[in-house]
Amino acid sequence: MAPFANLSTTWFALIALLWAGYLFLEGFDFGVSIVAPFVSRDDMDRRLCYNAIGPVWDGNEVWLLTAGGATFAAFPLWYARLFNGFYLALFLVLVFLIARGVSFEFRAKVDDPRWRRTWDWVNFLGSLVPAVVWGVAFTDLVHGVPLAGGGWYEGGLPGLLHPVAVLGGLASLSVFSLHGLVFLALKTSGPLARRARALALPVGAGAVALLGGTVAWVALAGRPAVVGQVPGAVPLAFAVVAVAALVLGTLLVGRGRDGWAFAFTGLAVLGAMGAVWSRMFPAVFPASNQAAHGLTIAAAASQHNTLVVMTWVAAIFVPFVLAYQGWTYWVFRQRLARPDQAPEAAAGHTPGGPLVPDRRRGRPRPRHA
Q1: Do residues 246 and 266 make contact, with C-beta atoms less than 8 angstroms apart?
Q2: Which of 36, 211, 269, 341 has its CA 20 to 30 A from that of 139?
Q3: What structural domains does the chain harbor?
Q4: Mean pLDDT, residues 328-356 taken together
């Protein structure tokens, strides 16, 4: 039993890393789309926002697919109970993520301002809703949900929206918005970057207050004790690091230290995920009413041979995925700036379409059809 228990715990930690990577990367994608209407002054600004994340957003979502697939293979009972109890919430996320992906592709297909505004709204909502729902879901998992005797959650979507979970959803929204603003400041230049830095200060203050409030609420609320759980000081330490990183990130972006600010807002996301997963351990589906109703790692895990095969597959293929994604970020590392020539004046250009960086001048130029 010891090797099985160790390997199942290892996969619990690996899935935690996948979720942390997903929210670190997709977090600034969500944030850029959420804040784009507030920092953009015209269609060119909006295009710069989209092109800042255009080469990487779909690759970032691979982390979510991998986390979901790993959960299904390593912990099938956990996967089943999540999709049984959280089905409407997860379906809601899926619908808005699909709409968001379509918006990137369809926005530039028709030369019509109303058409572009429609897809701008789709992109905004397709980022805002998942940003909130992920915060609600993870706060529910940290706080615990009321489970029936068989360990199944039957409260539906309304039962997930209790006050502390709503506060957690608002906290995740504000943290991702700050993460996106800092990324825009790092990735763009000129007036757009200056507006992103200016907006980051009030958004950062709100993120610190909301995340700090969520941490305090969860810590004071408590949860039924589970055999083998880590000391409460461990998740609390992760949470304190997350809040402190938000404070530092906000101060640094205000001083124009965009690279360090992005590192600290990313650290805030990682710290929050560390707090969530260490608080859950060893329950993958914690109960708020009675510890015996919760689902533990050992009870939810697949057979040992399955976990061994998964480990070998991950060890072989994950480095290739990381190398490819790192290469993508390196290729598209240049800052974006407004082109000297209005995009509509470029011959053969489709208004509202993408920009590409001009390596000779370090500035973006319109991409011709």
Answers
A1: no
A2: 36
A3: 19-303 (1.20.1630)
A4: 59
